[in-house]
Amino acid sequence: DRRKTCLLPQISLQLFFIHLECPKCQVELCRPPVGCPAGLVRDHCGCCWECGNAEGQLCDLDASSNFYGRCGEDLECEIQDEDLSAGEVPVPQCVCTNQEVICGTDGKTYENICKLREAKIQQTKRENLTISHKGPCKTAPLISTPPRDIINVEGSDVIFGCEVSSYPMAFVEWRKEGQSIFLPADDSHMAVQARGGPQRFEITGWLQIQKIRKEDEGIYTCFAKNKYGEVSASANLQIIDMGKHDTSLFPFPAALNLD
């Protein structure tokens, strides 16, 4: 079939590289590798140093093969088949042997030691980057995805979202401009929810307003706070009264939610 046909050239190339014989090692002919984010490894002949493959890159599961290359420092070649969709063929990828989250001396949190090493190599200003301590860095909140402006028809339901990353986890609250209290207060047509995610050390907060009225129009602000600081981001809600506008301008009167 089509997939098998597409794989034939790749398989042929793999077989070609696998069966290459190693010449006599002449170290003086080796070219020094430069800018290797995953560190150095010996080539398949065990002679010259070359850049190792970084986390997530394809690799040769069989040590005798020489097609994709070898994984770098603190990385192993594994087949990850947990997240495969139906019909997908599992392929070997480089996986960091230590998945413990760490805090770098630059104050940033890294998924693992492999990600920190990549950052150190890729950013020349981070040559002295090392591990500050195990676990995430303790930081003030950062709004990774702020709420978006919404234009919708009166009587519709709308939802503002706000994604925040921090450690310790932040507390998310909402407030409308011109009001001193946090929402929903005693307003029965508003609801506030929050849950962890979508990423590690993130929390997502939502403000839902049901059957919006003209008086709900205005600016809404997401506040995120922990012991290290506070941050906020705002979005505007604009409400359209269909009875006072030309409906031909709005081909989808049920919802114009831009979120």
Automatic annotation (TrEMBL):
Alphabetic keyword roster: Disulfide bond, Immunoglobulin domain, Secreted, Signal
Pfam families: I-set, IGFBP, Kazal_2
Gene Ontology MF: a single term: insulin-like growth factor binding
Record lineage: Eukaryota, Metazoa, Chordata, Craniata, Vertebrata
Coiled-coil stretches: none
Cellular-component GO terms for this entry: extracellular space
Protein name: Kazal-type serine peptidase inhibitor domain 2
Ranges for domain Kazal-like: 90-139
UniProt domain Ig-like: residue ranges: 141-238
Cross-referenced InterPro entries: Growth_fac_rcpt_cys_sf (IPR009030), Ig-like_dom (IPR007110), Ig-like_dom_sf (IPR036179), Ig-like_fold (IPR013783), Ig_I-set (IPR013098), Ig_sub (IPR003599), Ig_sub2 (IPR003598), IGFBP-like (IPR000867)
Organism whose genome encodes this protein: Erpetoichthys calabaricus (Rope fish)
IGFBP N-terminal domain sequence ranges: 18-97
Gene3D superfamilies in the cross-refs: 3.30.60.30, 4.10.40.20, Immunoglobulins
SMART domains (UniProt xref): IG (SM00409), IGc2 (SM00408), KAZAL (SM00280)
Gene Ontology biological process: regulation of cell growth; regulation of signal transduction
Compartment(s) where it occurs, according to its Swiss-Prot or TrEMBL record: Secreted
